[in-house]
Amino acid sequence: MKEKMFHRICKVNELREDEGRRFIVPASDNPDDEVEIAVFKVKGNIYAVSNICPHQHTALIYDGFIEDGCVVCPAHGWKFELKTGNQPTGRKGLDVYPVKIENGEILVAAHPKKFSW
Ligand code: FES
Fold it and tell me: Which of 16, 20, 66, 94 has the smallest CB count inside 10 Å?
Protein backbone atom coordinates (compact mmCIF):
# COMPACT_ATOMS: atom_id res chain seq x y z
CA MET A 1 0.00 0.00 0.00
CA LYS A 2 1.26 3.44 -0.91
CA GLU A 3 2.36 5.63 2.00
CA LYS A 4 0.27 8.73 2.64
CA MET A 5 1.74 12.04 1.47
CA PHE A 6 1.58 14.61 4.26
CA HIS A 7 1.69 18.30 3.38
CA ARG A 8 2.71 21.07 5.73
CA ILE A 9 -0.09 23.61 6.08
CA CYS A 10 0.73 25.95 8.99
CA LYS A 11 2.03 26.08 12.53
CA VAL A 12 -0.13 24.89 15.42
CA ASN A 13 0.13 28.31 17.06
CA GLU A 14 -1.25 29.95 13.91
CA LEU A 15 -4.64 28.37 14.62
CA ARG A 16 -6.99 29.85 17.17
CA GLU A 17 -8.96 27.58 19.43
CA ASP A 18 -12.44 26.82 17.95
CA GLU A 19 -11.77 28.87 14.82
CA GLY A 20 -11.37 27.23 11.42
CA ARG A 21 -8.97 28.01 8.61
CA ARG A 22 -9.22 27.02 4.96
CA PHE A 23 -6.39 25.48 2.93
CA ILE A 24 -5.95 23.99 -0.53
CA VAL A 25 -3.94 20.77 -0.34
CA PRO A 26 -2.66 18.36 -3.03
CA ALA A 27 -4.76 15.20 -3.02
CA SER A 28 -2.49 13.02 -5.17
CA ASP A 29 0.68 13.12 -7.26
CA ASN A 30 -1.30 14.84 -10.01
CA PRO A 31 -0.68 18.61 -9.57
CA ASP A 32 -4.24 19.37 -10.77
CA ASP A 33 -5.75 17.18 -8.07
CA GLU A 34 -6.37 19.36 -5.01
CA VAL A 35 -8.91 19.43 -2.23
CA GLU A 36 -10.14 22.25 -0.08
CA ILE A 37 -9.90 21.49 3.61
CA ALA A 38 -11.00 23.16 6.83
CA VAL A 39 -8.66 22.83 9.80
CA PHE A 40 -9.68 23.34 13.42
CA LYS A 41 -8.04 23.34 16.82
CA VAL A 42 -10.48 22.18 19.48
CA LYS A 43 -9.35 21.58 23.07
CA GLY A 44 -5.80 21.45 21.73
CA ASN A 45 -6.56 18.73 19.14
CA ILE A 46 -6.18 19.40 15.43
CA TYR A 47 -8.80 18.20 12.93
CA ALA A 48 -8.86 18.41 9.13
CA VAL A 49 -12.11 17.89 7.22
CA SER A 50 -13.44 18.77 3.79
CA ASN A 51 -14.33 22.44 3.52
CA ILE A 52 -17.26 21.69 1.20
CA CYS A 53 -20.62 21.16 2.84
CA PRO A 54 -22.57 18.23 1.33
CA HIS A 55 -25.85 20.12 1.70
CA GLN A 56 -25.47 22.82 -0.98
CA HIS A 57 -21.76 22.40 -1.71
CA THR A 58 -20.80 25.72 -0.17
CA ALA A 59 -17.12 26.12 0.78
CA LEU A 60 -17.94 27.42 4.23
CA ILE A 61 -17.16 24.68 6.73
CA TYR A 62 -14.04 26.58 7.90
CA ASP A 63 -16.36 29.38 9.00
CA GLY A 64 -18.60 27.09 11.04
CA PHE A 65 -18.90 27.22 14.81
CA ILE A 66 -17.85 24.47 17.17
CA GLU A 67 -20.35 22.69 19.39
CA ASP A 68 -19.87 19.39 21.29
CA GLY A 69 -16.92 18.24 19.15
CA CYS A 70 -18.81 19.09 15.96
CA VAL A 71 -18.56 21.85 13.38
CA VAL A 72 -21.86 23.47 12.43
CA CYS A 73 -22.11 24.73 8.85
CA PRO A 74 -22.87 28.47 8.99
CA ALA A 75 -25.16 28.31 5.94
CA HIS A 76 -28.04 26.14 7.23
CA GLY A 77 -26.79 24.47 10.37
CA TRP A 78 -25.87 20.95 9.28
CA LYS A 79 -23.59 19.50 11.96
CA PHE A 80 -20.55 17.23 11.48
CA GLU A 81 -18.40 15.41 14.03
CA LEU A 82 -14.82 16.63 13.64
CA LYS A 83 -13.34 13.20 14.43
CA THR A 84 -15.38 11.17 11.95
CA GLY A 85 -16.96 13.71 9.58
CA ASN A 86 -20.32 12.02 10.23
CA GLN A 87 -23.52 13.86 10.97
CA PRO A 88 -25.22 12.92 14.21
CA THR A 89 -28.39 12.46 12.13
CA GLY A 90 -26.71 9.87 9.87
CA ARG A 91 -27.02 12.04 6.75
CA LYS A 92 -24.13 12.66 4.33
CA GLY A 93 -20.88 13.60 6.03
CA LEU A 94 -17.54 15.26 5.39
CA ASP A 95 -14.30 13.56 4.38
CA VAL A 96 -11.76 13.62 7.20
CA TYR A 97 -8.00 13.72 6.66
CA PRO A 98 -5.13 12.35 8.75
CA VAL A 99 -3.19 14.99 10.65
CA LYS A 100 0.21 14.89 12.30
CA ILE A 101 2.25 17.45 14.17
CA GLU A 102 6.00 17.79 13.64
CA ASN A 103 8.09 20.48 15.32
CA GLY A 104 5.00 22.58 15.96
CA GLU A 105 3.86 22.33 12.32
CA ILE A 106 0.60 20.76 11.16
CA LEU A 107 0.82 18.24 8.33
CA VAL A 108 -2.24 16.88 6.55
CA ALA A 109 -2.57 13.93 4.16
CA ALA A 110 -5.43 14.69 1.79
CA HIS A 111 -7.00 12.28 -0.68
CA PRO A 112 -9.40 12.75 -3.57
CA LYS A 113 -13.00 13.27 -2.45
CA LYS A 114 -14.63 10.01 -1.32
CA PHE A 115 -18.26 11.00 -1.21
CA SER A 116 -20.08 11.30 -4.50
CA TRP A 117 -22.61 14.01 -3.83
S1 FES B 1 -24.69 24.48 2.85
FE2 FES B 1 -24.07 23.66 4.76
S3 FES B 1 -25.91 23.36 5.80
FE4 FES B 1 -26.55 24.15 3.91
Answer: 16
- Domains of the chain plus CATH, in order, are 7-108 (2.102.10.10)
List pLDDT tens digits, range 47-69.
999 999 999 999 999 999 999 99
Q: Name the residue with the closest Cα to ligand 1, atom 1.
A: 56
pTM value surpassing 0.85: yes
Q: What is the 3-class SS of the chain, one letter each residue?
A: CCCCCCEEEEEHHHCCECCCEEEEEECCCCCCCEEEEEEEEECCEEEEEECCCCCCCCCCHHHCEEECCEEECCCCCCEEECCCCCCCCCCCCCCEECEEEECCEEEECCCCCCCCC
Given the CA of residue 57, which atom of ligand 1 is nearest to it?
Answer: 1
The confidence band for 4, taking pLDDT boundaries of 50, 70 and 90, is: confident
